[in-house]
Amino acid sequence: MESYKITSRSENGNDKAKFIINKSIGPKKPMYFENVDQAKGSPLIQQLFYLPFVKAVKLEEKQIEITRFDILEWEDVIDEVSVQLQNYLNDGGEVFENNLLDKTPVTIYAESTPNPSVMKFVSNKKLTNETVEFKDIDDAKYSPLAKKLFHFPFVKEIFISSNYVSITKYDISIWEEIVMELREFIRSFIEEGNVIIENSIVKKKKQKLSSSKNLNSFEEKIVSILEEYIKPAVASDGGNIEFDSYNSKEKSVQVILQGACSGCPSSTFTLKNGIENMLKEMLPGKVESVIAING
Question: Is residue 218 in some structural domain?
């Protein structure tokens, strides 16, 4: 079996040094560690943090990048670190224990929303770059996570955003009886590395957006306001808002509400006292009303 060989390099004055390895030892996606506690499960990275000058470590498939504290220069220790790493690996030292690479540690917490029928399940890992809503299992054919969730008899609708899943339940169930089961299922599904949303649905959404009618400058202003001032607040409640259209004669803006905002008892109040007032104030004389469509 070919032995491990490590070459190292660092530019003068740079606080980072790279240790290139001739064989794969890490994940395809970089992993970052800022202290020994974060390195739990990786004996190799923990050993590095025992060196007093190690500030942070980035592990890649065939490379380790170490950031040092300013107590010394890399030229003083880089060769020694390289030898230590090479000897550790050739002596059979573990990079990860308990197949840590096979699972990504995930935490999920449940958060109530203004909509009593919707619960928000927040992940410490990014789930998707898109926001997608699923009304039924047929909608979910491109989302393995959503499809599995629809197998629960109490799941009515699903909304997936960057780091959370909003679930709408049927009224026959109460959250106290089902929230733990859903939380554990979502956590296990993500931790096992399953696909959340297939690339095909992302491509379809982008094609749909690119094929939609071009917005004029005023409509672009409305979208900009929604994106900057309204979407973050809506997202914190487990929902989403999308611009649909603007009627210049009636001075009305039509928006699409998704996730927890769709069918929420307080959505009318939010529209009239929040979104509508903001658009009136920021676009005086141009907006008189906001009309919502449930996604």
Answer: yes
List, for residues 257-277, the tens digit of each pLDDT value. Answer: 777 666 665 555 555 567 888
Counting the structural domains of the chain, the total is 3
Contacts of 66 (CB under 8 A, 6+ apart): 16, 17, 19, 48, 54, 56, 57, 58, 81
What letter would DSSP give residue 100? G
Q: Does residue 207 lie within any of the structural domains?
A: no
Per the CB < 8 A criterion, the answer to whether 142 and 197 are in contact is: yes
Per DSSP, helices labelled H in 126-174 are 144-149
For 205-248, how does the pLDDT look when each residue is reduced to its tens digit (9 = 90+)? 544 544 445 788 888 888 888 888 887 777 777 777 888 888 88
HSE-CB at 227 with a 13 A cutoff on CA atoms is 6
The phi-psi region of residue 58 (left if phi > 0; otherwise alpha if psi is between -120 and 50; otherwise beta) is beta
Task: Please indicate, yes or no, whether residues 13 and 94 belong to a single structural domain of this protein.
Answer: yes
- In this structure, the answer to whether residues 84 and 21 fall within a common structural domain is yes
Q: Which residue carries 């400058």 as its tokens?
A: 217
Give dist(CA 52, CA 273) in Å, integer.
Answer: 56
Instruction: Supply the CATH number for residue 83's domain.
Output: 3.30.1370.70
Helix-strand-coil percent breakdown of the chain, rounded to 5?
Answer: 35, 25, 40
Of the residues 62, 85, 101, the one at which a domain ends: 101
Domain span at 264: 213-294
